[in-house]
Amino acid sequence: MNEMVRKTQAAATDTSLDPQDWNAFRALAHRMLDETIDGIANIRARPVWQPIPDDVRAAFKADVPREASDLADVYREFAEHVAPYATGNVHPGFMGWVHGGGTAVGMLAEMLAAGLNANLGGRDHMPIEVERQIVDWMRRLFAFPESASGIFVTGTSMANLMAVLVARTSALGTPARQYGIGNDGALLTAYTSRAAHGCVSRAMDIAGLGTDALRKIDVDTDHRIDVAALRAQIAVDREVGFKPFLVVASAGTVDIGAIDDLKAIAELCREEGIWFHVDGAFGALAILAPELAPVLGGIELADSIALDFHKWGQVPYDAGFLLVRDGEQHRQAFAQPAAYLSREARGLAAGAVWPCDLGPDLSRGFRALKTWFTLKTFGTDRLGAVIARSCALAKYLEARVLAEPRLELLAPVNLNIVCFRYRADDAVNREIVADVQESGIAAPSGTTLDGKFAIRAAIVNHRTDETDIDALVAAILDFGARRVGDGVIEIEAPPLAAQ
Questions:
Q1: What's this model's pTM, rounded to 2 decimal places?
Q2: pLDDT tops 50 at residue 494
Q3: Sites of the modification N6-(pyridoxal phosphate)lysine (predicted)?
Q4: What is the distance between the alpha carbons of residues 445 and 437, in angstroms, rounded to a whole number?
Q5: Cis geometry, peptide bond prior to residue 21 (ω within 30 degrees of 0)
Q6: What is the pLDDT of residues 395-408, one digit of tens each?
Q7: For the chain, domain boundaries
Q8: Whose CA is closest to 168, among 228, 248, 280, 268?
Q9: Measured between alpha carbons, how far is 99 from 226 in angstroms, rounded to an integer?
Q10: Topology of domain 24-49+86-102+379-499, per CATH?
């Protein structure tokens, strides 16, 4: 018997994935942490982005690792082949897309969350209370009632999909979850602007309603949805027998950061009995900046709001969020009875509404912790100041563009996004964007506005300042002049690219 116990203990030791030498593990872990912090602290010494060398890419075609490797060797491979070729949004020169810069505080919180390894699908444990506290904070910020509900998701694409599903259930009733959308569901129509993010169409697709059921309404000269045209389209659809059920307004459009007239849309939706959802992926958090909050007037009237803390909130990826005015309607769209999810009066299975009742995921990470750390550590006043600062930097870039004859502004600067171009054709401007990215100096992106290719600078990173704006402009003028001059240029290796 004792021999059997010894063998069982030995087998357990052999199969445990804990380090055999905790002191050596601790030393390497501290080194990893130190070098990661150094990388953030000295980020300006690195290129914003650099292309992945062929040999590095090829190294990641290797077969499945069957044998164990030393952790130090795995870390070395990460440090040499992964970290140098990341997206670059930690760098202040990253202005291509609306990606937050993250913070060292958020990084530590992510580490702590991983240590807890908590599943936030449900049950009675403190990590869920942390998430509930943030839901309560969001209710207060957006003046939603106490009955409102909220949930962390991967990002606003998922939050928008979930809002469509909640609105669909509200329109068709809960039987639609069992029997399908049926004939009534086939008549449902939703509305958004032509400037809305593509994930809204995708949400209609995934929800089974079809992209043709989404009416894309024209925008005005400020790229906001034409409310009169919206009203007219709803009337036409009702006249022919369709059932309007949802309007998705934008609080910060993807191309130029335009904010729809939320008050007017809220009033229209109330008159028509239509669910009013706001896609506020990054713009909704302008509520934190007193000088910007008024442009969101009417958002407090929404039935649901989608937003990302990993954008203007500077929380490390990913940390999306959905807030729903009527918590019971939210629950009815997702809650599903199951024996293994039964609630008890006491013990670990106690509790009322679990997060799995408010979304499709049973397994959920502790996204709330890094958001909680960020909000608690910096406070909403400081975060609001960061948001206002990024908008001020956009105005600075706008002034630089307007003062430079070789550049052309292509859209009004609403918040933090500036769309402009070098005075040359689309092909030249596309090459300029790639030239600047490959130089490692800055990372703008491109889009198309009114048929013209635009260089797009989205200023989100809390580290960005005027020197980064100046470097972007100088690089665009330099590469533009060389492109127009002879059409062929050599891109110099960015700093540290060879290291």
A1: 0.93
A2: no
A3: 311
A4: 9
A5: no
A6: 999 999 999 999 99
A7: 24-49+86-102+379-499, 122-365
A8: 248
A9: 28
A10: Aspartate Aminotransferase, domain 1 (3.90.1150)
